[in-house]
Amino acid sequence: MVLDKYDRLILEIIQQKGRVSNQELADAINLSPSPCLRRVRQLEEAGLIDGYVALLNARKLGLTLLSFIQIIMDKHTPERFAIFEDSVTGFSEVLECHLITGQTADYLLKVIVKDMDDFQQFLLNKLTRIEGVSGVHSSFVLKSPVKTTALPV
C-alpha cells in the first residue's frame, strides 16, 4: 500500500491519540469524516494498524523496576529456542523478548516488576528454571529520557 500525506497524518495522530473520534481526526487532517473513516479502515485492512491499546502508568500500578536481561542459551537449536520462547511468552513480567545477534547473548528481554525482591523471585523461580538457559546478565533502568510507542511514518 502506498501511503499519501493523509494516510501518514492519520497514522501519526492515532499513534499519539488512539481514542480520537473520526470527526476530530477528519478535522485535524482537513478531510470530511466519510473519506477519513474509509482511509482508517483501509489502513486497518492493509495491516498497517495492528490494533488499539491503552498505555498504563507502570508506577501507579506499583511496577517500579524495569530491567533488560541478556539470556545465553546452552544450545542453539530450534527446539531449545522454542522452549525458551514458549516459556517467556507466559510470563506477565516480560514486556518484550528479542532474539538478537552481535552479542554473546542470544535473547534480550525487557522485564518490569515491583521491586528487587520481585525481580529476584522472577529470576530464580521462573527465568533460570527454563531448560537451556545457561547465562543471565541483568541491567536496570535508572532513567528513560526517550520512551515512545510511535513509529516514524
UniProtKB/TrEMBL annotation:
PROSITE patterns to which the protein is assigned, alphabetical: HTH_ASNC_1, HTH_ASNC_2
Pfam families, per database record: AsnC_trans_reg (PF01037), HTH_24 (PF13412)
GO cellular component: cytosol
Keyword Cell cycle carried by entry: no
Signal peptide (residue range): none
Record InterPro entries: ArsR-like_HTH (IPR011991), AsnC-type_HTH_dom (IPR000485), Dimeric_a/b-barrel (IPR011008), Tscrpt_reg_AsnC-like (IPR019888), Tscrpt_reg_AsnC/Lrp_C (IPR019887), Tscrpt_reg_HTH_AsnC-type_CS (IPR019885), WH-like_DNA-bd_sf (IPR036388), WH_DNA-bd_sf (IPR036390)
A Gene Ontology molecular function term of the record: sequence-specific DNA binding
Gene3D superfamilies per the UniProt record, alphabetical: 3.30.70.920, Winged helix-like DNA-binding domain superfamily/Winged helix DNA-binding domain (1.10.10.10)
Gene Ontology biological-process annotations: regulation of DNA-templated transcription; response to amino acid
Alphabetized UniProt keyword annotations: DNA-binding, Transcription, Transcription regulation
HTH asnC-type domain mapped to chain residues: 3-64
Protein name in the entry: Lrp/AsnC family transcriptional regulator, leucine-responsive regulatory protein
